[in-house]
Amino acid sequence: MQYFGEGKSRVRVRLIEHSPSYVSDHWCIKGHVIFCTKGAMDTRLKDGRVLEVRKSMSYQVADDAEAHSPRTRTGATLFILD
Asked: What is the pLDDT along the chain (82 residues), one digit of tens a residue?
């Protein structure tokens, strides 16, 4: 994990590996830019929609915009900016 910038401009950059059968235990309201480098992940939005993210796909969500909760059956490696 690395941090760049200061104050409100500070950005966290990380590479996360979710194991097969990972299911988040909470609703996240933090904004992210996510790029999937390996595997696949589904992100449930609180309104019921599901975002399917597969290798080489990305998505973004803003702070406090849409509560989301990820899960993966196969495992996933994600490059995340937040």
From this structure: 898 999 888 989 999 999 999 999 999 999 999 999 999 999 999 999 999 999 999 989 888 888 999 999 999 999 999 8
- What is the spatial distance between Cα 52 and Cα 63, in angstroms, rounded to a whole number? 20
Instruction: Give the pTM.
Output: 0.85
11, part of any domain: no
User: What CATH number should be reported for the domain holding residue 44?
Assistant: 2.60.120.10
- What is the DSSP code string of 39-50? EEEEEEETTS-E
Sequence-ordered list of residues with C-beta below 8 angstroms from that of 17, at least 6 positions apart, any chain: 75, 76, 77, 78
Alpha-carbon gap, residue 53 to 39, rounded angstroms = 9
Distances (CA, A) of 82 to 10, 21, 60, 62: 9, 24, 10, 9
